[in-house]
Amino acid sequence: MVKSNSIQSITDNNIPSFSSFAPKYLYEIDGLKRPKTVELEELHLKHLKQFLGSLKLNKISKQHVVRFRTAKIKGGWTGRTANLSITILNNLLNHAKDNGLIDTLPTTGLKPIRWKPKKRPLFAPEQI
After folding, report:
1. How far, in Å, CA of 71 to CA of 53, rounded?
2. Which of 3, 7, 19, 94 would you label with 59, given CA atoms 20 to 30 Å apart?
3. Where are the domains positioned within the chain?
4. In this predicted model, what pLDDT tens digit does every residue of 23-77 receive, in sequence order?
5. Helix count (H) and strand count (E) of the chain?
6. Which parts of the sequence belong to the Core-binding (CB) domain (predicted)?
7. Per the confidence metrics, is the pTM higher than 0.70?
8. Digit-coded pLDDT (tens) for 103-119
9. Which CATH number describes the domain made up of 12-127?
């Protein structure tokens, strides 16, 4: 991919790997989002680094994202947690797109996993 920009020409060599871009993303959102949100995104990005770490941002495909999600579901994550992780990945990739590093998002058109929350029993008055 070669993208021409008046400031700088971005080539495949200039595009960072997922592992090298994630800390930059976290640094740049710090202060823009609540501290707990940044903490949660950092936790999910650690899991994503295990799957996408060495891949350049423009080489991440929908297939990579689906494999990650499938592995986490098989590993015991709920659909909600897996969906949240993909949302965080999408946030990072949107940030990369805003910075001119990628043209398209591999998460486009990816449908969230359907899930049902576990039913919790109501408390009896004597339990309160």
Report:
1. 16
2. 7
3. 12-127
4. 999 999 999 999 999 999 999 999 999 999 999 999 999 999 999 999 999 999 9
5. 4, 0
6. 16-97
7. yes
8. 999 999 999 888 777 77
9. 1.10.150.130
